[in-house]
Specification:
Length: 1073
């Protein structure tokens, strides 16, 4: 093994080394040291597998004893487990509900709200007991502070409960895979034991399809081949065997056995195994704050500063005003009255702070995320990290796998050519089969049924499906569509000889006796088309007879095979021949009789796209999100699938993983804008891709299913793992689990992510409008009123500020995504949270509401013909309060749409049930407060005329909002970011439209140069006939003139010239389409 292959695969060195080796001849450290990195020299130093078994006190022919006791008494395997550990990972530090609650509370905005609630509660209690309200019948001073504290508790508990439920769902998802059984040899017998009961020294029996749960060393077996790509990233299957034979003797946990049977001795379990080390490493690390969280933290801090400044200014202004009024009064008031007045002023100032602090903002974010993640689970997305939902809304790139995500992970026969008849599509299978001659139909179905090891049985979910090689399953599926009962075919045709599929020979052969012809046998062979065709000398013609396979027919078949391959189809050829008893006896036991075969036909097999994938990719492109496919398949298959899915567009480029790795970072950055497909990729390629994209300020979503994908999933802004095909390590590393492994679910996550961002912005626009209006109205009315009272009392502000904010969060944060969210580009990572359009609406509506309320407060008595008495003033103040609330109700409707050119604020409102219910609740509560609030809310019942008047004033918010929407974009004048500006929108450096245009321009250049070349060739022939000795330069070289001539021997071939022209225009061989 080369030194480069021995480079350590896992960081951190050896695991915890408590295990001593007192009863054994080897330590746990020695065993794990030879696995990471793989080191056959250390295995030899231990004496090889035989001496290793002796050191572990196990006879490989017998296995461990079921009731092994080494040393003094104790449980079975106690000494062994003390030395090497159990095959159980230590339980992850269970985060309790209360820890989640504390983590949710550890937020600056919530801490600031708590401080405000404590101060408000203290002052309110003082005012109720010793201050100006000590004689009131109803004590409501404590309500304000208690309500704010209640809002903090609601936010914290909502976050904690949501996180707790998501963790439980994740544990439930993995629980079914944690407990399974494996075959082991104990006491000389083959037994099944649970994976948690495996010990170091156990002899495990492995066979195709097994996923190895522990690390081991090869003991014996035949043709064992493992796929360790999920652990090591190596896509090639690895042959296992003795180190002396030049094969890999180490079998890592997480490896899948592809073929062969054998046994291995266990050398590492639990956290010391390769898989265990990765799982333990995945438990480390904390997620970073999302862009929206960072912006909201900054905004909340700024609002708090402005609110505090306004409160201090109000406190100073009212204090100075009161002192001046006291000084100008005939008699200086008593100190007790002055103290009580100062307390009232302080309460007014604290009310301004409380109103200014956006206590509804964290609640809106929490409600929006919790609602979205609940709905996303129904769409096939299990959100493990709550913030990933919001981050996905800003995704600019989606890097997706192919198999199982874009495709169905189910190989299917989609094309066929048998007896000179072609099956054009999967839907034509039955008609194609029916058109074949009867003898050919029977021969075809017999070949499919008997020459196969696949079978029908329950899958992991208990559903009945074909199990085995995907290609054989595809052929059996085609046969089932055509009415094949493979079980009866196999029962009637017991194989005389079977030559299993070999990767070297790329064929499988089965010999069965011919029914009704004693002593005669039929050889069925299938495999790689070119290899089978090479062994054929005859073919089944259109009448079902056998004809000679001459050069013309062979060339036609090769052309057909090539056409299938160009469409990225995996081709399987079927053939047969008949032999006698003597010929059967003469057949080699190892080599199948592959000569003089009769060609039956060729089948084109493909893993078809999932339904709706093409539309989902189009939706991503429409949303300004670039989709890149990263797959381990070959480049031709990757290109074909990517074209069918709409990922590889005209002008886009496709490269292989090795080509990508050879590039310098500068070259990688240069190709990235046009790179759409990467084939033959490794997990390292994914990781490099994420790094390069993030260096370009992209928000990257990455899919992965293997253990080795976990670094890329962790590194990506949003990591998607597969719920069906994904390993536990991949799920642990991911932010969102695709429960159905479907690409369409990623698009649904994108829709919900953008809906969350929009919901938060909608609520933010409403929240700031309410806060600015309330602060300004409180400040202005308190400063300019004769008695220093504001237009709204503290309890009324509590309703407006607290209850309205909470209900508004429910209303605006629970609207589902619309098709419009995918009709605009993603937002820049560092874009402003509040756009010019939002500021225009916030300031405009706030100014309008302050003005209308002040006008109503000063001229309402005349407008509504109220008497200038205490009762009239009470009715007027109640109307001001009522109008203020209705202004907020209709402003919520305004805030349903915040994007430019969205004038219809009532769009889909009939489907927004939550919003409508919240408005009904607000209006109903307002009616109760006005009618029965009395002393607590300082209100009096209103007449029907007064209700209609205040309702009309509130409705004015709608035409005012429409007016501000129609104003021109003046963002540049104010230094703000418009929603359609480059600062807000993330636009791809090279759009698909531009790539198509550039490719079309090149096509024109190719055509012009090509026809110029043809014309030059004709001119060359004419000149040559007139002057045979004339020699000219190659017209295809750069700088050659279009009228250059060439010798007649250099006649231009159309195909070769076209290729040379393309190279001449491109200057290099294209790596794209």
């Amino acid at each position: 093994m080369a030194d480069s292959e021995r480079e350590r695969l896992l960081p951190g060195g050896s695991s915890d080394a408590r295990g001593g080796a007192a009863p054994f001849g080897v330590t746990a450290e020695q065993l794990t040291a030879m696995l990471d990195p793989k080191d056959p020299d250390q295995l030899r130093a231990l004496g090889g597998p035989a001496q290793l078994c002796a050191a572990l006190r196990v006879d490989p022919r017998v296995g461990l004893e079921q009731r092994e006791h080494i040393g003094a008494g104790g449980e079975a395997f106690q000494a062994r487990r003390a030395a090497f550990g159990r095959n159980v990972l230590p339980e992850a530090h269970a985060v309790t509900f209360w820890q989640l609650l504390y983590a949710a509370y550890n937020d600056r905005t919530l801490i600031m709200l708590t401080a405000a609630s404590v101060v408000s509660l203290a002052v309110g209690v003082y005012d109720d007991t010793l201050g100006s309200h000590r004689d009131d019948d109803v004590k409501v001073g404590w309500v304000e502070g208690a309500a704010i504290f209640l809002a903090v508790l609601v936010v914290c508990f909502t976050n904690a409960i949501n996180d707790y439920q998501k963790e439980k769902q994740f544990q439930k998802l993995n629980a079914k895979k944690e407990d399974r059984t494996v075959k082991a040899r104990r006491d000389g017998c083959e037994v099944e034991i649970g994976v948690h009961e495996i010990n170091v020294g156990d002899v495990l029996l492995i066979e195709p399809g097994d996923i190895v749960p522990v690390d081991g060393v090869f003991l014996d077996g035949h043709n064992i081949t493992c796929d360790e790509s999920s652990a090591t990233g190596e896509s090639d299957a690895i042959k296992k065997g003795p180190a002396e034979a030049g094969r890999d003797p180490f079998i890592l946990s997480g490896a899948k056995v592809l073929e062969g049977v054998g046994s291995m001795v266990v050398v590492a379990v639990g956290p010391r195994s390769f898989y265990g080390k990765i799982m333990m490493a995945m438990r480390q690390g904390e997620g970073s704050a999302t862009p929206l969280q960072l912006k909201l933290d900054v905004l909340a801090e700024q609002i708090a500063k402005y609110g505090m400044s306004a409160a201090i200014l109000l406190l100073v202004t009212l204090t100075v005003k009161y002192l001046v009024s006291c000084a100008l009064a005939p008699e200086f008031p008593p100190y007790s009255i002055m103290f009580s007045q100062f307390v009232s002023i302080v309460i007014e100032a604290i009310t301004v702070v409380v109103v200014a602090v956006p206590e509804g903002l964290p609640m809106a974010v929490t409600i929006s995320l919790a609602y979205a993640t609940t709905k996303m689970l129904r769409d096939g997305n299990l959100v493990r990290q709550l913030a990933a939902c919001e981050t996905m809304g800003g995704a600019t790139v989606v890097c997706t796998d192919k198999t199982g995500t874009l495709t169905q992970n189910r190989m299917t026969v989609v094309r066929g050519f048998v007896a000179e008849r072609e099956m054009a599509s999967r839907a034509d299978a039955l008609a194609f089969y029916g058109a074949l001659p009867a003898a050919t139909r029977a021969l075809l179905l017999e070949s499919i049924a008997v020459n196969s090891t696949a079978f029908e049985g329950p899958d992991d979910k208990g559903a009945i499906d074909f199990i085995g090689s995907k290609s054989e399953c595809a052929l059996l599926g085609f046969g089932k569509t055509c009415g094949l009962d493979y079980r009866s075919e196999r029962a009637n045709n017991t194989p005389a000889r079977v030559y299993p599929f070999s990767s070297e020979k790329k064929t499988m052969t089965t010999i069965v006796p011919i029914q009704g012809q004693p002593g005669r046998y039929r050889v069925h062979a299938k495999g790689a088309s070119e290899i089978v065709l090479r062994a054929c000398t005859q073919y089944v013609d259109k009448d079902g007879g056998v004809a000679e396979l001459d050069d013309k027919v062979r060339a036609e078949l090769l052309q057909r095979i090539s056409a299938f391959a160009n469409k990225a189809l995996r081709t399987f050829a079927l053939s047969y021949k008949e032999i006698s008893d003597a010929e059967l006896d003469a057949c080699s036991a190892d080599d199948a009789p592959l000569s003089s075969l009769v060609w039956i036909g060729v089948m084109g097999i493909q893993d078809p796209l999932r339904p709706g994938v093409h539309q989902a990719v189009e939706d991503c492109h429409r949303a300004g999100v670039i989709v890149r496919m990263i797959t381990g398949d070959n480049i031709e298959t990757a290109r074909a699938i990517a074209r069918d899915a709409g990922i590889l567009t005209k002008g886009g480029q496709a490269i292989t993983g090795p080509q990508w790795r050879k590039m310098s970072p500068e070259q990688q950055h240069a190709i990235l804008p046009r790179l759409q497909v990467m084939a033959r990729s490794s997990p390292l390629d994914k990781q490099i891709m994420v790094e390069r994209l993030q260096e370009r300020n992209e928000v990257v979503a990455m899919t992965g299913d293997g253990t080795n994908d976990s670094p890329a999933l962790k590194l990506a802004d949003v990591g998607f793992s597969m719920g069906i095909a994904g390993t536990e390590v991949a799920k642990e590393a991911s932010d969102i689990i695709l429960m159905d492994d479907d690409f369409k679910s990623i698009v649904k996550a994108l829709r919900w992510g953008r809906a969350v961002n929009d919901s938060v912005r909608k609520f933010l626009q409403f929240q700031l409008t309410v806060n600015i209006t309330a602060v300004l109205l409180t400040f202005v009315s308190a400063v300019f009123s004769a008695d220093g009272q504001s237009a709204l009392t503290a309890v009324q502000l509590l309703w407006v500020n607290m209850i309205m904010d909470t209900l508004a969060a429910l209303a605006l944060a629970t609207e589902g995504p619309t098709d419009a969210v995918l009709g605009r580009p993603p937002q820049q990572r560092n874009s402003a949270l509040i756009t010019f359009e939002m500021w225009r609406m916030i300031i405009g509506q706030a100014a309008f509401q302050v003005i209308i309320n002040l006008l109503l407060l000063n001229h309402g008595l005349d407008l509504f013909h109220l008497p200038a008495t205490a009762a009239g003033m009470a009715s007027l103040r109640t109307m001001v309060f009522n109008a203020f609330v209705f202004l907020q109700v209709f402003n919520q409707i305004n805030c349903r749409r915040i994007q430019p050119n969205e004038f219809n604020v009532f769009a889909n409102i009939h489907r927004d049930t939550g919003f409508l219910l919240v408005q009904v609740a607000i209006v109903s509560a307002q009616w109760l407060i006005v009618s029965y609030g009395g002393v607590a809310f300082s209100t009096v019942p209103l007449t029907g005329y007064q209700w209609i008047g205040t309702l009309f004033i509130g409705m004015l918010s709608l035409p005012v909002g429409l007016f501000f929407r129609m104003l021109p974009d003046l963002s540049a004048c104010f230094g703000l970011e418009s929603a359609n500006s480059v600062a807000q929108q993330h636009l791809p450096e090279v759009s698909t439209a531009r790539m198509r245009m550039e490719a079309s321009v090149k096509d024109v250049q190719y055509a012009v140069r090509f026809f110029s070349a043809i014309r030059s060739s004709q001119q060359a022939k004419q000149h040559a006939s007139a002057d045979p000795d004339h020699i000219c330069h190659n017209f295809l070289e750069p700088g050659a003139s279009s009228d250059a001539t060439v010798a007649p021997t250099a006649a231009v071939s159309t195909s070769s010239s076209w290729a040379r022209v393309r190279r001449a225009v491109d200057n290099t061989d294209p790596v794209g389409q």
